[in-house]
Amino acid sequence: MPEFAFQRCIHPHCGATADLADTAFRCPRCGGLLDVAYDWGRLPVPKSLKEFEAKWADRTHPLNFSGVWRFCELLPFAPDDLVLSIGEGQTLCQRADPVAAYVGLKPGRLYLQYEGMNPSGSFKDNGMTAAFTHARMVGARRAACASTGNTSASLAIYCAATGLMRSIIFIGSGKIAYGKLAQALDHGALTLQIAGDFDDALRRVQEVSRQLGIYLVNSVNPFRLEGQKTIMLRVLEALRWDVPDWIIVPGGNLGNVSAFGKAFAELTELGLIPRPPRLAVVNAAGADTFFQLYEKYGVRWNGGRPDDVKIAAYLKALDDSGRRADTLASAIEINRPVNLPKALRALERCGGVVREVTDQEILDAKAKVGAGGLGCEPASAASVAGALRLVREGVIGADERVVCILTGHQLKDPTATVAYHTSDPKTFDEYLGKRGVKRVAFANRAVQVPNDLDEIVKAIELYA
Ligand code: F0G
Fold first, then answer.
1. Whose CA is nearest to atom 10 of ligand 1?
2. Ligand 1 centre and the CA of 283: distance in Å?
């Protein structure tokens, strides 16, 4: 085990540490969340982010090919020969002027970071490669997660591709996207369908992992978040190391925002960037715990002592009223975000805000992103819908530079996409109308034509 990395409680007043090999992923003293921490003073840290560019010339080396491990000096917890990569992180940060116009930003001010290009189709692979590497370091044989689709697909693909572990996935009944279930099954995961939703499945998988000593890969695992830090490094790389004004990210379990906040805190501390960008987290209105707690109830990091009484009272009220998370954006249909304290810390460090957007806003934003050439799933489009809100509110200025994170690929939740564009009122109503979506502003309807050459030619001349 490398000497200069360990795990540390995120709460400064506790500060207990745990061995790098510990897999409980809870502070041994106070039960809080853990960070992977480094003794930076004794590690070879680059003097400038530009130094990473040297790795571009050496892409046949698997570590340099990976969009995660080419930044290994900034997540130095693993010896090189134990790193497991399947080529994750080959993703794109694309300037998106038509989408900028939609959200009210000037040309050249909006970029979309497209994480759907990862091997399993979502940002999760950034974290999974890091968690797998840690699992290999500790000799784990079985790994588990709860999932609405992307984490399970990612876990299953890493297990299948590396043959290192057996994957066990917990899903809520009827709460997994079909395409993602297909990946888990195809890649040979043991799939357990629990009567309940994601919040129930996550609670159970933590209990079971503790009891059976199974390696847990949900984002409560701090090694996953080490990998996810690199999404921000690639954004900076694409912007030629200039820090944007804003990063906007959908919020579910709040792993990404926590990882991004940690990345920017470390980069600032190491003198590699002059200042962090501001962070905006976007909840779906049907799963808005973080928005409510942060913006309505004023809960803050408060030096590591967030108001636990207020948080517990809010969650109890949710339970008492039987209110379950409910949004078409399945990946962020989460009412009990496990990384809440870390996310509060990230917003404090980066001057953050939280917003909520309706399914209607999400689907309209998704259609605009799709028309601009990037296919994302509904949860991902929450970031663009959030940008629109923040520009309208004047929180983001029209010439600020903004990066929205598109967390997952279009092929998740395709039913919602087809129902959005359909000309069949029954299909629309069944999937969207019933769930509160009233209009489709940007539908691209299929054209019905008879099986007749002249009619087909006529239709093409008319519409294209
Ligand atoms: N976007 C996508 C595409 C996701 O799959 C998820 C989480 C999120 C956003 C939320 O990210 O937790 O970092 O705030 N998906 C989990 C899953 C629930 O099971 O795949 P977060």
1. 252
2. 11
Model confidence over 246-266: pLDDT tens digits? 999 999 999 999 999 999 999
Ligand 1 close to Cβ of residue 289 (< 6 A): no
171 lines ligand 1 (CB under 6 A): no
In terms of Cβ atoms closer than 10 Å to its own Cβ (0-12, 13-18, 19+), residue 132 is buried
The string over 352-385, giving b where at least 16 C-beta atoms fall within 10 Å of a residue's C-beta and e elsewhere, is bbbbbbbbbbbbbbbbbbbebebbbbbbbbbbbb
Residue 438 and residue 430: Cα distance in Å, rounded? Answer: 12
User: 383 CB less than 6 Å from ligand 1?
Assistant: no
Q: What is the pTM of this model?
A: 0.97
The residues that bridge with 404 in the sheet, in sequence order, are 112, 248
CA of 22 to the centre of ligand 1 (A): 25
Q: What is the pLDDT of residues 350-388, one digit of tens each?
A: 999 999 999 999 999 999 999 999 999 999 999 999 999
The single-letter DSSP state of residue 118 is: S
The rounded Å distance from CA 265 to ligand 1 centre is 22
Question: Model confidence over 284-322: pLDDT tens digits?
Answer: 999 999 999 999 999 999 999 999 999 999 999 999 999
Tell me which residue has its CA closest to atom 6 in ligand 1. Answer: 331
What pLDDT digit, counting tens, does each position of 107-119 carry?
999 999 999 999 9
**What's the mean pLDDT in 155-162?**
96
Q: Whose CA is nearest to atom 19 of ligand 1?
A: 147
Burial class (CB in 10 A: 0-12, 13-18, 19+), 95: middle
Q: What are the DSSP E strand ranges found in 39-173?
A: 92-95, 110-114, 142-146, 166-172
Please name the residue whose Cα sits nearest to atom 4 of ligand 1: 331
- Our answer on whether the CB atom of 183 is closer than 6 Å to any ligand 1 atom is no
Distance CA 293, CA 136 (A): 37
**Could you give the CA distance from residue 284 to residue 292 in angstroms, rounded to a whole number?**
11
Select from 13, 10, 67, 60 the least CA-distant residue to 36. Answer: 10
Q: In this structure, which residue's CA is closest to atom 12 in ligand 1? A: 253
